[in-house]
Amino acid sequence: MKNLTLGEKPLTLAQLSPVAEGHRLKLRVSAKTYAQLKPSRQMVEDAVGRGEVVYGLTTGFGKLKNIAVSPKDLHDLQRNLVLSHCVGSGPDMPLHEARLVVLLRIASVLRGVSGVRPGLVRRLVEFFNSDLIPAIPQQGSVGASGDLAPLSHMAAAWMGHGHVYLEGKRMGARAGLRKLGLEPLVLEAKEGLALINGTEVMKSLAVCQVTRAMNLSRAADIIAATSLEALMGSPRPFGKRLAELKQNEGQDRTAANVRRMLKGSQVVKSHDDCDRVQDPYSLRCVPQIHGAVKTALQHVVDVLSGELGAVTDNPIVDPVTKEVFSAGLFHGQPLSMILDYLGLSVCTLANVSERRIEQMVNPDLSGLPAFLTPNPGLHSGLMIAQYAAAALASENKVYAHPASVDSVPTSANQEDHVSMGVTAGRKARTILDNTQRVLAIEWVCAVQAREFRSEIKAGKGVEAGAALLRTKVKALKDDRYLKPDLDAAEDLLASGALVAAVEKAVGRLSH
């Protein structure tokens, strides 16, 4: 298991991607980093000792900000804050997403402006490294004062309430703590608020979905190249000169990927004296369509990379200025907007993929046997696979409606603009699920279609991808129960196996 050191440098997407892909890491924090927490913690203890009225330290929260709380009640204040905010609903976040939430929250408080004790953070690292991960309900955050409800479930689990996953097994929080011989957390002044006031659920969703999207972007190019060869499409629209004329980096990367896929192709050679004037847009415009998605992904990565190192706490306990001040660093608008952008961008991959599927299964368009079966009529072949792709692509359009333009005031209008960032992230996840399935259907269709023209050698990358699919999905001769075939193709695509197999054959592809 690899180690990840927190607190010395801002986290990067590359460091977090293994967690997003389901792998575990061990966290390491240096003594120097822990020591950097002491000044802000001392400021909290000094303010409490002097009896100062400071929001989040000695007052209520939100609309109750003007109500002072007695020093003797500060432990109860933090406990009550966390438990009262545990109002989440829906299924738990997937375990890999919840792991990232915890990792990101630990990284945030290590910035040294949250006012927490070093000992508290040591406990959180111990929980993480023991793979004690809180069960976090997916619904309940409006993404304003951070992800209050889901992060409260995170904190409450460490306090012995709710549920946890211990090495992947779901159980009561107290039972999980007992199995590790650990005591529940007891929070002191400011610490409850420090744990629940942040955008880490949104960040986790963004990291996981953009990691998936970068895999899908490359896989989409691979699959489109396979469809291009199956349909005897022209390689000319993928020429380097056209990319130079367009001056779009996303287009350039997509065209380069497809050219690499087609290297050694006899289908390409067959176009030397071809009289075909134009291919349909779903083939001819792959560089523009897929390229636009790559451009969008780059913007998402750029914004997210900055957010990974951001402080999202409130109030800020700043030992540099010696001030405790309230601001809005917890607001999720930057994340909600890129999550919406990510989702609607990935919709495009599903839309154009479904159109290529139609090109292949329709004999009037492809010149291939109807629905890619050797015996049309008696057998329906892949007819209904296109229906399924159409249903998923259409469903995506509903989920593409932006969450980031919505806002419902909360906390008696004190928090009068919210980001809906978690909703944007959950929608993006669903869009990626659907798009992944559509691309898997296209891959199955394209490899099947290619085999009707197997006398013409395909490009090296296309052949590598087809060979991988055939290890799990046999050629369709007679009608059979198709769902396991589509599931197997989707698993190969989602796991990164398709991209890995093709890159082994042709070299690194761009996302």
Radius of gyration computed on alpha carbons: 26 Å
CATH architecture level-2 label of the largest domain = Up-down Bundle
Number of strands: 9
Main β-sheet, spatial strand arrangement: 4-6-7
Amount of helix: 55-70%
The major pleated sheet works out as: 3 strands, antiparallel
How much beta, percentage-wise? 5-15%
- SS-based structural class? mainly alpha
Mean pLDDT across all residues, rounded? 93
Give the C-level CATH assignment of the largest domain.
Mainly Alpha
What spatial form do the alpha-carbon principal axes imply? elongated
CATH domain topology of the largest domain:
Fumarase C, Chain A, domain 2
Distance between the termini: 27 Å
Number of helices: 22
Task: Please give a handful of descriptors for the protein shown.
single chain, Fumarase C, Chain A, domain 2, three-stranded antiparallel sheet, two-stranded parallel sheet, 22 helices, mainly alpha, Fumarase C, Chain B, domain 1, 2 domains, 511 residues
Mind explaining what this structure looks like?
The chain is mostly helical and about 500 residues long. The chain folds into two domains: about 1-195, Fumarase C, Chain B, domain 1, CATH 1.10.275; about 205-310 and about 350-405 and about 415-505, Fumarase/aspartase (Central domain) (Fumarase C, Chain A, domain 2). Helix content is about 55%, strand content about 5%. The chain is built from 22 helices and nine strands. A three-stranded antiparallel beta sheet has the order 4-6-7. A two-stranded parallel sheet has the order 1-2. Strands 3-5 form a two-stranded antiparallel ribbon. A hairpin with a 4-residue loop joins strand 8 and strand 9 (about 325). Helix 10 (about 200-230) packs across helix 20 and helix 20 (about 460-470) packs antiparallel against helix 22. The mean pLDDT is about 95.
